[in-house]
Amino acid sequence: MRHYNLGFISDEDIYKHVKNTVLQYRRSIDLNEFNANIVDPIKLTFDAKVYGKTMEEVVADECFRQIDKSDTNKIGYFHQQLFNYAGMGWIVPAAGFDVENHDLHIFVEMKNKHNTMNSASSPKTYMKMQNKLLEDDLAQCYLACRGDFNPLQGCALDCFH
Q: How far apart are CA 26 and CA 37, in angstroms?
């Protein structure tokens, strides 16, 4: 087995964690899954005409986009679940914040490019953090974003639409 020398996780555990993530990747999509997402037929028509593609090619591109979005969410899950191996009080609770450390009073919401901070989730996240700060005088709440970082706006521009 390869030696990763990550310190907070054994070589065997990181191997298993990566393997489990790869096994969760989507490789196909059926018609019901495709239709579960709202697809704009006007956009598909424009895409076909603008890019000189057949409707079949545009639908195949949309299928790939949906699969890729799902797989990107798996990478977010991968990052979050790494905290299960960190020890020192870090947990990934079933409910609440994405990552918590009660000993250090740290509470983290994690976002990635496809799990964005939109107009609905942004106030909800802010209120969740505000409630935690009011409940626990020592609490530190963080919003951690995977992707491009803009120091003037905090998380990646993708996280704030």
A: 15
